[in-house]
Design goal:
Helices cover 75% and strands 0% of the residues. It is mainly alpha-helical. Helix 1 runs antiparallel to helix 2 and helix 2 runs antiparallel to helix 3.
Length: 103
């Protein structure tokens, strides 16, 4: 029976990070880009928790993960408001078609 160690957590974190980067680079829909950013933040949370457990850092990793979760919630609320405003202005959420700023 294998033990789950730090390498397993790091592998899952790398996979999530790569999927997030892939989602940001390849998607044209602003909501999908935001989902890619959320995947990257979740991979950072996995790293914080894993290093806190296996690195004997106490509760510092959990506290950092809590701050990242709060940051992600604020980012989602503000970003969705921006996406709604962009849709109202340009009638699209395709990030390639939004190339001008309104005065």
């Amino acid at each position: 029976m294998t033990q789950i160690g730090l390498n397993h957590f790091l592998f899952v974190s790398v996979v999530l990070f790569c999927l997030g980067i892939f989602g940001i680079i390849t998607r044209k829909n602003a909501v999908m880009v935001l989902m890619g950013i959320e995947l990257i933040l979740n991979s950072a949370n996995i790293n914080f928790i894993a290093f806190a457990k296996y690195g004997n850092f106490g509760y510092q990793g959990q506290m950092m993960a809590l701050f990242v979760i709060i940051l992600a919630a604020a980012e989602a609320a503000i970003a969705l408001a921006i996406v709604l405003n962009i849709y109202k202005t340009f009638s699209t959420v395709n990030v390639d078609e939004i190339d001008t700023l309104k005065d």
